[in-house]
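User: Fold this, then the next.

Assistant: Folding the first:
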Amino acid sequence: MASGGWEHCNLRCMGVALSVAAGLLGACMPEIGARIFAIGGPCTEGPGMIISKDLSEPVRSQKDLDKDAAPHLQKAVKFYDGLAKQLVSQGHMLDVFASALDQVCMV
């Protein structure tokens, strides 16, 4: 069990939210510069998931990333690369505000 009695991270579908935002900008503001600001915790559900919602899984480290031992990394990279290509083709930007706190679900 995680400290403080928490067993699970909050469910966050940030990947879906970013995908919807990109789609709306593409449909409503084609060929007009626009920007998405993303603030929040880690994506724990759906496309773009970067960590499990189960806190019994250990926090990832840089070594895990280097060894390809982070279980959600490859799918997340593929999803966010596709999102980046979509935004670039639309002439739009994405700003993500994140910190290491997302690793322990405190944001």
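Now the next one, as you asked:
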Amino acid sequence: MASSSSYNSPCAACKFLRRKCMPGCIFAPYFPPEEPQKFANVHKIFGASNVTKLLNELLPHQREDAVNSLAYEAEARIRDPVYGCVGAISFLQKQVQRLQKELDSANVDLIRYACVDVMPSTAAVSVPPQGLNSFEASTAAIAPPANRQRAVAPMGFSGGGGFYRQTPQPVAFPLPWSETPSGSGDINEEEGNM
């Protein structure tokens, strides 16, 4: 019964083009009579013959997505004749960048709070393991315990601006604040000799 009523009322495309809607009409499944503006927008931007060619070249299961995409692009072009859907994409990309900055800021705050929480519990462990240089010894004294690191690490995000823990690498050259081989590491003593 529903199929006979669909043949009686032409699809939105055939009604717009003022032609008889045949049973095998390629527009009928995608432009129902209840949505005349959908085809009017698509026709205004792309033209009926171009849409017919496009739908004939596609496989039947791809046609609905193509028509939805054409309808979206046509509506965006009518709302914004200069930029069309590119304007909407640009707006959304700016919004994603803004939200990524907020996420990065929140991740920095999480790291800061996690480090403040970890620092008092590791202050008692100040004796570095034997055989470490001064840089490794200073980082070993403030490094969080293994179980604390596992508790904080899953909160990070992989990909696109998230945070991650990085293990300190040994430095191949002496740092300005490390002990010098000659034993005189005080800057004031060196300035006094000049």
